[in-house]
Amino acid sequence: MDNLVDRFCWKEHRKILTSRESKIPALQTFGICSNHRAGQPLNVHIHDGCMEIVYVVKGHQVYEVGGEVFNLTGSDIFVSYPGEPHSSGSYPESVCDLIWMQIRLEDGVPFFGLDEDHAGYLREKLRSLPRVFSGDPALRTALTEAFYGLTGETQGERYLAEQQLVYELFRIILLSQKPVARQSDSISEAISFIHANIGNPILLEEAAASCGLSLSRFKVKFKEETGVTPREYINFVKIEKAKQLLGEKSSVTDTALNLGFSTPNYFAVSFKKYTGLTPREYQEQIGKSPSSKSEA
Predict the structure, then answer these.
(1) Which of 124, 141, 176 is the C-terminal boundary of a domain?
(2) What does the alpha-carbon distance between residue 190 and residue 211 come to, in Å, rounded to a whole number?
(3) Mean pLDDT, rounded, for 125-147
(4) Which pLDDT does position 170 carry in this prediction?
(5) How many structural domains are present in the chain?
(6) Tens of pLDDT along 250-284?
(7) Contact 277, 37 (CB under 8 A)
(8) Which domain holds residue 110?
(9) What is the DSSP letter of 201?
(10) What CATH number is associated with residue 114?
(11) Which of 79, 188, 206, 240 has the most other CB atoms within 10 Å of its CB?
(12) Which of 40, 45, 140 is nearest to 90 (CA)?
């Protein structure tokens, strides 16, 4: 099992600061990324001495800890604790936007410029964060400002960004103490409708009608609550069902037809976008896995 330590990165869709760049000893990693295509599954790993806080800005992401799978959507916050093994299970890193931090919690490590009493309080509260809870829209803006502020040219800019980050950590703690429904009743009804009709071509007008909303209101409300558009969510659910069918030896053509895709080619393009593999590559991959051989 790897102790995963991210390295400095500054690419268009993926940027990572380490404590060397941020000048904050307790902030081992601070990253922002926008995954436009699915990547490989995240292998089981730990962050030695660090807790990790991941804010899913939009899209979907899956994490697995201790055999339990957590399906996250936009505005969800996921927490792993120091030295705790976690991964994305068999799921690829999804199409999503993420902001994440790995924070050192050991006593004696200078903690965001705070005095001993405030540092001790913040460490204690961070250690007790729940596994998953909801953020809010303001979090993305504030964390992004803090991230780029830490790269500022002047010491004043960097100090301001450090204190802005402290403020947001306290706000994250408060958000975790105010449980809210991750979806309203209307959007939950729409999600149930989508799952119940996943084998059919689903019109957005039908999904909106299933929960008593106008089409325009449905689109806005769905994205507000899940972080993705209704069509993106429908495609995501179809691909998850496709993975199940392909694993049961369904042909690519039959899988496409059973899930309401207009053509096998369109299905293959959509499948690769969400999994990083073509349907045939996926079947070949799972056919080589130890579990599939033992079941054969």
Answers:
(1) 176
(2) 6
(3) 93
(4) 97
(5) 2
(6) 999 999 999 988 899 999 998 888 788 899 998 88
(7) no
(8) 2-176
(9) P
(10) 2.60.120.280
(11) 79
(12) 40
On whether residue 264 sits in a domain, the answer given is yes
- Domain boundary pick from 176, 194, 220: 176
pTM of structure? 0.71
Report the distance separating Cα 61 and Cα 94, nearest Å.
Answer: 5
171 and 226 in a single domain? The answer is no
Band (pLDDT 50/70/90 cuts) for residue 38 is low
Tokens of 200: 């059919």
Residues 172 and 219 in one domain: no
Q: Which residues contact 61 (CB under 8 A, 6 or more apart)?
A: 54, 72, 78, 88, 93, 94, 96, 98
pLDDT at 150 (0 to 100): 97
Two tokens, residue 186: 């209307």
| 209 contact partners, CB below 8 Å, separation of at least 6 | none
Residue 264 sits in the same domain as residue 121 = no
Of 124, 130, 163, which Cα lies nearest the Cα of 24? 163
DSSP secondary structure of 27-52: EEEEEEEEESS---B--SEE-TTEEE
